[in-house]
Amino acid sequence: MAKTTIEIPDDRMSELDAYKNRLGEILLLGLSQIKIQETLLLYKRGLISIGRAAELTGLTELEMIHQARANSIRPGWNDELVKEELS
């Protein structure tokens, strides 16, 4: 397993005290969220499709659509997605 060192501002360290045994989980969750934000930005700029954004983040297309909506981005729909959403 790889190890790394990160610097955390002193004023934020107290927030992490309760989660010291879960720092790896916090880091991975943050990485996942950054990937979602980056791919949504690419999608919003028209550089990738919502399907490609889903592939890059490891989400299903429907999950990516939900993430887009949560970020006030209205992705296009196709018949297959509508059927999946309604089922």
Mean pLDDT: 87
By DSSP (H or I, 4+ residues per run), the number of helices equals: 5
What structural class results from the helix and strand content? mainly alpha
Rounded radius of gyration (Å)? 17 Å
| Low-pLDDT windows of residues | none
Question: How many beta-strand segments?
Answer: 0
Q: What is the strand content?
A: under 5%
Instruction: List the helices and strands in order.
Output: HHHHH
What does the largest sheet look like?
none
Helix content: 55-70%
Give the N-to-C terminal Cα separation.
42 Å
Shape: elongated
Could you list some keywords that capture this structure?
87 residues; 5 helices; mainly alpha
Explained architecture:
With 87 residues, this protein is mainly α. It has a domain at 37-87. Helices cover 63% and strands 0% of the residues. It contains five helices and no strands. It has helices at residues 10-16, 23-44, 50-57, 61-70, 79-86. Helix 2 runs antiparallel to helix 3 (50-57) and helix 3 crosses helix 4. It is elongated and about 50 Å long. The model has no long low-confidence stretch (mean pLDDT 87).
